[in-house]
């Protein structure tokens, strides 16, 4: 049977169900009990057509719930749609006696929470995948105050890891000819360097030395998952303002030997933690290498969020030399970076401290504190250079004392760097960065850094 014909039938079922809901006044003000009942009915359904209609109804009810009712629904997901402890015990007893593949499979099935099957069935609805991504976004907003909901997030992450597998992702180049509906989303989702207006967007997309690529998923249509902005450059760039202003590096494109990734934005909060950024960078490198074989270097020009906060915390550490802490206090002076003497004094100590922060400051898992560093180092990049006053915007000065960083992707080293980082937490870095970190250790001891 023609698949388009089947899809039309299913869409008609969904639309008819929506019409029936509009005629039912009780359904206009649902609470989480309505949704729980709809989910139970969906799990009890056997037919595919009826399951599509039930999934559509359940998602429509969820969309109309208040924030408090959504929280109550997640609580019910945690309790009413968990795995059955009795079934797990029985399945484990059977496996411990037989120890064969049949009883092992039965144990796996018993251990799976019922909500995973519920999510699979909700995914049958039209736009079900996107609605589930939005549902997880709501859940993530609750986890800080309600950590007991984390098992639900684990279920979402487990399923999304399969649904958003690299094999399903489509890489598309974004340019000025891309449909306006997508370009509007690029403006809205840009998370690193805000796009001011359509003229700003055109500078970033239409210039001969710019590229932009995004990953899409067939189940989510024209909603980008993640996108990267690229500037072609002669040599490694150290400052973001010339790039954002669209200043040209030269008249001949053949002079460009570097592709600089200066903005990587995750578009869907509900897909946080689902890793496809590394696939994006690697595929973009392949695309650019084929289009522009003269390119030799693939680097980022990355922000350092959290560094200024880390510096503030170090200033409060009385074990640090008083002179060092006093100098750091000059960061509180308005427009300090416009004072040449003060700026040079701060540069002498802040670049080494940045190297220490990025290379040596670790979280509870033994990984770098900085999230951008974790992303690129985990992808196999090298911490290559720390750029003083790389971003002199108010945001750049406030979050990182104006610093930006180049992470270098050397194709022959990516796998080794990734393995060392994953297995040992090793931060691959250049000799220049290593020397800066060594100076920082001397500064912390009150020694002169040379």
UniProtKB/TrEMBL annotation:
Signal sequence segment: none
A GO term, aspect molecular function: malonyl-CoA decarboxylase activity
Superkingdom of this protein's organism: Bacteria
Domain Malonyl-CoA decarboxylase N-terminal positions: 81-164
GO BP term (any one): fatty acid biosynthetic process
Domain (Malonyl-CoA decarboxylase C-terminal) ranges: 167-409
Transmembrane feature ranges: none
PANTHER family: MALONYL-COA DECARBOXYLASE, MITOCHONDRIAL, PTHR28641
Protein name (record): MCD, Malonyl-CoA decarboxylase MCD
Organism: Vreelandella populi
Native organism taxonomy: Bacteria, Pseudomonadati, Pseudomonadota, Gammaproteobacteria, Oceanospirillales
């Amino acid at each position: 049977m023609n698949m388009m014909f089947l899809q039309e039938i299913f869409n008609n079922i969904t639309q008819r169900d929506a019409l029936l809901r509009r005629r039912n006044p009780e359904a206009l003000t649902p609470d989480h009990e309505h949704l729980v009942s709809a989910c139970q009915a969906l799990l009890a359904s056997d037919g595919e057509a009826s399951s599509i209609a039930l999934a559509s109804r359940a998602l429509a009810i969820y969309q109309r719930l208040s924030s408090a009712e959504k929280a109550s629904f997640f609580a019910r997901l945690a309790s009413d749609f968990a795995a059955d402890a009795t079934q797990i015990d029985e399945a484990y007893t059977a496996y411990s006696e037989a120890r064969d593949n049949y009883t092992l499979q039965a144990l796996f099935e018993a251990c799976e929470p019922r909500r995973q099957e519920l999510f699979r069935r909700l995914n049958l609805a039209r736009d079900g995948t996107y609605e589930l991504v939005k549902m997880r976004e709501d859940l993530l907003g609750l986890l800080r105050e309600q950590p007991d909901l984390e098992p639900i997030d684990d279920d979402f992450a487990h399923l999304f890891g399969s649904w958003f597998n690299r094999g399903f992702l489509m890489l598309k180049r974004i340019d000025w000819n891309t449909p306006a509906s997508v370009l509007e989303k690029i403006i809205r989702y840009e998370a690193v360097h805000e796009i001011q207006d359509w003229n700003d967007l055109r500078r970033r997309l239409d210039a001969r030395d710019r590229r932009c690529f995004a990953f899409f998923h067939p189940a989510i249509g024209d909603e980008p998952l993640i996108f990267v902005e690229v500037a072609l450059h002669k040599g490694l760039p150290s400052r973001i303002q010339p790039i954002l202003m669209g200043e040209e590096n030269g008249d001949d494109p053949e002079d460009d030997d570097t592709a600089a990734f200066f903005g990587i934005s995750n578009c869907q909060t509900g897909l946080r933690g689902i890793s496809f950024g590394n696939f994006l960078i690697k595929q973009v490198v392949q695309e650019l290498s084929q289009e522009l074989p003269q390119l030799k270097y693939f680097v980022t020009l990355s922000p350092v969020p959290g560094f200024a906060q880390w510096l503030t915390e170090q200033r409060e550490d009385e074990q640090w030399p008083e002179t060092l802490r006093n100098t750091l206090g000059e960061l509180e002076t308005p427009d300090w970076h416009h004072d040449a003497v003060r700026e040079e004094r701060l540069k002498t100590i802040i670049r080494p401290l940045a190297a220490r922060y990025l290379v040596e400051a670790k979280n509870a898992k033994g990984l770098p504190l900085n999230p951008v560093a974790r992303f690129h180092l985990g992808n196999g990049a090298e911490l290559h250079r720390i750029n003083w006053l790389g971003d002199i915007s108010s945001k750049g000065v406030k979050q990182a004392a104006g610093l930006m960083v180049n992470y270098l992707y050397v194709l022959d080293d990516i796998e080794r760097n990734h393995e060392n980082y994953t297995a040992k937490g090793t931060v691959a870095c250049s000799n220049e960065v290593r020397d800066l970190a060594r100076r920082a250790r001397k500064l912390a001891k009150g020694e002169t850094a040379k």
